[in-house]
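Quick log. Single chain, no ligands specified.
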Amino acid sequence: MPASGEEPGLEDLLAQVALGREQAFNRVYDLLAGPVFGLARRVVRDRAQAEEVAQEVLVEVWRTASRYDRTRGSALSWVMTMAHRRSVDRVRSAQASADREEKVSRMSGEVAYDQVSEVVTTRLEGERVRRCLGGLTDLQRQAVTLAYYGGYSYPEVAGLLRVPLGTIKTRMRDGLVRLRDCMGVER
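-> predicted structure:
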């Protein structure tokens, strides 16, 4: 346990969570929600799916905190391994589902009506996005790319680029406005 007045470490907090202490879990949640979501977002790529994975992992931490063993590694490693495994499982599950649908489609001999149209539309939209990204300044493009393709939060982007958070927010806002205008998206 930490010295008096010192904030407990993640390992100590997990020990308290194992005893059912909600306040300790709230602190664990505050410390780990961002990193768990960031890892899930990088693996899963889809924001909604990553949010679900992060929620599942944090619920699992609440339920299984008593299984954490300090002698086998850090608490952060334990939770992030859980998050990585759950994220990979989600990707594999989605791929297996897509493979099954494709197999059924091939067996039926029918080509999905909009399949060709969807592929063409997706390619055209991708080219349009790349062209519009090319119209941003290097600084804006870098921030937007890290946030939207890298899955990083604004504070994480600020840390990676070693730039104040306010500067990142300004770059993102200006970059997204330019992208919206370039792509012709209405408000």
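The domain at 7-107 is CATH 1.10.1740.10 (Rna Polymerase Sigma Factor; Chain: A).
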